[in-house]
Amino acid sequence: MLTSMGGKSVIVTGGSKGIGKGIARVFARNGAKVAVVSRTLAEAEASAAELSREEGVVKGFTGDVAKLDDMQRLATEVNAAHGGIDVLCANAGVFPQAKIEDLSPEEWDQIMATNLKGTFIAIKACLPYLKSSGQGRIVITSSITGPVTGFPGWSHYGATKAGQLGFMRTACIELAKYGITVNAVLPGNIMTEGLIALGEDYCNSMAASVPLKKLGTVEDIGYAALFFASKEAAYITGQTIIVDGGQILPESLDALTQA
Fold it and tell me: What average pLDDT is seen over the chain?
């Protein structure tokens, strides 16, 4: 059993829906003071109100991870509201599909700004408070797409997710002197609002390619993030956990039918 997160101040960017909301729920369930961050305050506050049914304290905040001024203001507000910042879950991300032939430079820049630059900016803005924590934790939401696998239409998304891991491996060295760890969770196919919107047949076909024969939940990613943020993970930094039900392992669908 992990040491309680009771009283710890946690920021989750992109926390109003999907994986971010699952991460926020797990931390709140374990007693943390959670700041749910979205570019839309109404969405952040609505999610915070829902998640407040858990054990922790949950509040909604607004901010664009691609803008340093926004993130510095956010960090100041969370510090004032929750008495510091102990954990940053750099989760905000977008994943519009566009094949290379159709992808514009502007679309490329947009996803880079949110997913990759946004990770750097969120960390930079929160760093003064994480240094003061004495047990600062940074957990990045990457993906199997990019670092491990590829999928048509997601070359730009995959590039950002692989880039996050390159950034992490140097960031963990630079921040180690402050006792801050930096790790990443790599989700596979997770049952989010976006995936559900694609229809039952699509979800079933995706589940069929997973050895466990089901899609992951957003809480599955939350518990991986919780471990990285825990006292028990204090000697782990610069590492990744793949949470995919074994999706990346079969050489082909035949490997699953013959198992």
Answer: 95
Residues 122 and 68: beta-carbon distance below 8 Å: no
Residue 210: φ, ψ to 5°: -105, 125
Residue in 129, 157, 202, 223 annotated catalytic: 157
From residue 73, give the alpha-carbon distance in Å to each of 65, 69, 80, 211, 222.
11, 6, 11, 44, 25
Model-wide pTM > 0.90? yes
Task: Verify whether residue 157 is a known catalytic residue.
Answer: yes
Q: Map the chain to HEC letters.
A: CCCCCCCCEEEEECCCCHHHHHHHHHHHHCCCEEEEEECCHHHHHHHHHHHCCCCCEEEEEECCCCCHHHHHHHHHHHHHHHCCCCEEEECCCCCCCCCCCCCCHHHHHHHHHHHHHHHHHHHHHHHHHHHHHCCCEEEEECCCECCCECCCCCHHHHHHHHHHHHHHHHHHHHHHHHCCEEEEEEECCECCHHHHCCCHHHHHHHHHCCCCCCCECHHHHHHHHHHHHCHHHCCCCCCEEEECCCCCCCCCHHHHHCC
Least confident of 73-77, 147-151, 182-186: 147-151
How far, in Å, CA of 191 to CA of 213, rounded?
13
**At the topology level of CATH, where does 9-192+218-244 sit?**
Rossmann fold (3.40.50)
**The pLDDT of residue 50:** 94
- The predicted pLDDT at position 259 comes to 65
Spatial distance between the Cα atoms of 45 and 58, rounded to a whole number of angstroms: 9
**Predicted pLDDT at 239:** 98
Q: Which of 147, 143, 139 is nearest to 168 (CA)?
A: 139
